[in-house]
Amino acid sequence: MSEKRDYRDTVFLPKTDFPMKAGLPAKEPKIAARWEEEGLYRQMREARAGREKFILHDGPPYANGDMHIGHALNHTLKDMVCRTQNLMGKDAPYVPGWDCHGLPIEWKVEEQYRKKKRSKNEVQPKEFRAECRAYAQKWVDVQREQLKRLGIMGDWDNPYLTMQFESEATIVAELMKFAEAGNLYRGSKPVMWSPVEETALAEAEVEYENLTDSPQIDVAFEIVESPIEELVGAHAVVWTTTPWTIPVNQALAYGPEVSYGIVEPTGISRTGRGGDREKDMADAWNRASHILGKRFLIATSLLPEFQKRLDAAVGATVLITGTSRHRGSDLAGTVARHPIYDLLKNRQPGLDPGQGFSSSSDTPEGSTTPDQVRDDDGSEVAAWEKALAFYAKPRPFLPGDFVTTDSGTGLVHMAPDHGEDDFLLCREHGIEPVFAVMADGRYRDDWPWLGGEDERRRSVINKPFNAPEGPICSDLREAGALLSASADYEHSYPHSWRSKAKVIYRCTPQWFVPMDRDLSTAAPLPAGEGPGVGGAATATATAEHPSPTPSLEGRGSTLREIAMSEIERVRFVPEKGRRRIGSMVEGRPDWVLSRQRAWGVPITLFVRPDGSYLQDPDVNARVVAAVREDGVDAWDEARKAEFLGREHDPDEFEMVTDILDVWFDSGCTHAFTLESGRWPALKWPADLYLEGSDQHRGWFQSSLLESCATRGRAPYDQVLTHGFTMASDGRKMSKSLGNTIDPLKVMEQYGADIIRLWALSVDSTEDHRIGDEILKGTGDQYRKLRNTFRYLLGALDGFVGDMSDVGEVPELELYVLALLADLDGKLRQAAENYDFTAYTRLLVDFCNEDLSAFYFDIRKDVLYCDGPDSVKRNAYRTVLDLLFHALVRYAAPVLVFTAEEVWSTRYPDGGSVHLLEWPQVPGVGADGAKWDKLRALREDVMEAIEPLRRDKVIRSGLEADVVVPAAAVPEGFSDADLAELFITASVTRGDSDTVTVTRTNESKCGRCWRLLPSVEEDGDLCDRCEPVVAQWDAAR
Asked: Which runs of consecutive H residues, i.e. helices, occur in 88-124?
């Protein structure tokens, strides 16, 4: 038997220089450098000039550290939006921005000071602000390069920064729109306050932590007056998890519909076995001595929980009897006394209560001057008497609809300085805050309990200060008022996201924008700026409360109403975002604008001694011009007369030293980017705002309120949100847990396209996960996509042609073109819906399932072995060409570097793939049901072949003779068609309901390896390959 010829060199295998191994970490920076050198972003803008605009306005990240994985996902989504809009033929510029003011940056600069054992109070404010500005600029430059490395395309040479002088001037100008319309007021309300940072915080600056060791105490207030005679002499019991608020208690709240009872501990019972039980009982009796024989008022439904706390405090079972029940509404007119009064009085014997302690008018917030606690005679005794009078004042019982029986005792102690409900209910009854807690969280120097004279004074967020053995509980215990105290309460408590320190509610003078004030009477703003903001405040001002909450009697549209109507109009993706921001705006308090910090845009107001502020457009214009020239440093006392001009006496005004909340800064970004004219490609309003779901309470909301107040509508038409990136186990990422993923390291190891593919594959509308295994899975997904393009490039090597060169198009090619047309429509819809998870999944599934596992698998025999003049081969390559041009465009917004590599491999001089537009796909239809039936049968055949291949009966489907159920074969397919589609030796039809497979007896073609009747013996050529080889030999 003669040796058979080796026909391998006659097979038309794909040829390409496109490597299987990506090497993205090395290639991507070179591609990015070429884009920058060629000015690709500029080319994109020029190519789309005159088209319909699509404006995504960038939400500014803080310029205070390296890019993290959340930044990577966020900016990948933004890039995907702009690239898909550009791909669909719109002009979609992207101007990146940074938030440069505020606590995050100021805190970092202070950290540097602390390392050097310096304080920011030791340097001039301008010097400190200069350091903040330099710090922010450093991180802007760092993050800019990192985002460019991620493949984010934008106007990187001309970003917007909130600290640019022009931006700061615009922020001041926007503030002045509120001021000139009288839509600002200064009032004292409880706000979120950080004693560590010594500033008010926006809700968006606060995070919540689950604690398991918070204090909880029960405190007894003796009832001294009541229309219910038996209550006199009893003790009202309040429960709180903030012991530090007891020193500023001013009232007690009850639920009008709650049922209350009088209970009396009469003894204790022996519990437990073993040990020295007599001594244990003696100790328990001693601990219970101050409660036995007393009567306590408590909600009847909460008595079991109260009993448990008493038992734990005593160390034995407390025997309790009930005497009577009363409806909450019957408690009206009841009065208690503060439990600490007698103890404090005994520490200074011989004093009388005095005439009462005046709250806000006599004791300004933060007061430490002796005159504020002295009587006219200036005596220290009188001063102490006056201070002590605060605790001698009666504590009235007030009806509170917010009082529930979910926990506690059904009676709530009221500290109007430190709670929203407390503040509103007390103010309704003429009880004002006393400003006892200073900015650093300590009680004032002149405060009679734990004030400056007490060495035990600490910040109210100090854990030992609030502990069961701390000074508050110790004094209450000494006074006989502490019924129980423990440090085991589990709840969620707010803390500053920057310092991680606990946050308190603290009543301080702040600047507010009213939410429920009639805006319809506002003075008109310049043309095109909407209805503007409300008229002058009508409430009476005082020195300590310069402008209380304005009258809400107006019947026109309010800021809340306008914002809520805009929330209904704007499109939210996902839809749940509408409900989230709507619930926040619907119930939010007035907007707090002021912060007590140094690095930010000043509240550029001149305030009179009566608390009113100057509303002079000329003065405001001079201030805006100065800020545009010199930045925020222009707001300087030395320029007071210059700003006020000849019309106003500088001695009659005080310059406000507070700065604006950074959310007001970022809420104005639409004004100094979209409207400024500095970026001609932009327009107002934006089509889309895109950020994390936490920005419903942050940037989305501040932008909404600012624009609704000054322009009568939201600055955006659509809002797209994403969830948070979690660790692979679903936990929050934390450096302490070691479960963070650094996108910079991922780019070094895998490449930026892997991060992008991950970001666009996960369901970003919800919280999503990332980890090493997830990234490995993304890498596998990427390799499959890359191999699809590698196959296309190899198969199209040297191809020049189009559909006009093809004769009759085979049905399989028509079917694949129909699949492409279907994919095209779904991808466009997904892009328009910002459903990038679906977009990426559709693309990946089409490449893997419809192409690699089906179409390519079937047609590779035609590609490799049919002759150059084969109609079927030419039709296949023509369809591959259409697929290439479509897929490289579809993939370009996702795999920005790989798509560029693919395109330039085939078209080295063809420019950038990112300048191309959405592909023109033939509108071909096919009988989808017929092909679905055929593909299902194909799967059945492959499953039937696999056991024989696994048992080495056959090596591949090419050696299989297959019998299929005749009923399972769609019309229009011959047995030869089925054998080609199933890649088997033969296919016949039978009456059975199952597929059967046997090994064929035919011989194997030496070139195409098919086992066919036309091959006499293994190694010979089949009747298809023989003329192809002859033609190939003749051409040599």
From this structure: 103-115
Q: Omega of the bond prior to 574 within 30 degrees of 0, cis?
A: yes
Alpha-helical runs (H) found in 738-810: 743-749, 752-761, 772-795
Whole-angstrom Cα distance, residue 727 to residue 771?
6
Q: Could you report the per-residue pLDDT of 825-877, keeping only the tens digit for each?
A: 999 999 999 999 999 999 999 999 999 999 999 999 999 999 988 999 999 99
Q: Is the peptide bond before 685 cis (omega within 30 degrees of 0)?
A: yes
Q: What is the Rg, in whole angstroms, of the alpha carbon atoms belonging to the chain?
A: 38
> How confident is residue 804, by pLDDT bands cut at 50, 70 and 90?
low
Q: Identify the CA nearest to 480 among candidates 631, 365, 346.
A: 346
pLDDT tens, 70-109?
A: 999 999 999 999 999 999 999 999 999 999 998 889 888 9
Q: How far apart are CA 723 and CA 788, in angstroms?
A: 31
> And the tokens for 123?
């340097």
Measured N-to-C along each axis, helices 576-587 and 559-569 cross at an angle, to the nearest 10 degrees, of: 180
Tokens encoding 110: 């202070």
CB 55 within 8 A of CB 92: yes
Q: Which two tokens stand for residue 518?
A: 């009639």
The whole-model pTM stands at 0.83
Helices 772-795, 896-906: axis angle to 10 degrees equals 20
Q: Is pLDDT above 70 for 782?
A: yes
Q: Cβ contacts of residue 902 below 8 Å, gap of 6+? A: 18, 789, 793, 888, 891, 913
Query: How far is Cα 578 from Cα 567, in angstroms, rounded to an integer?
Result: 6
Give the contacts of 106 (CB within 8 A, at least 6 positions apart). Answer: 132, 597, 598, 599
pLDDT (0 to 100) of residue 989: 95
Q: How many CB atoms lie within 10 A of CB 362?
A: 13
pLDDT tens digits along 984-1012: 999 999 999 999 999 999 999 999 999 99
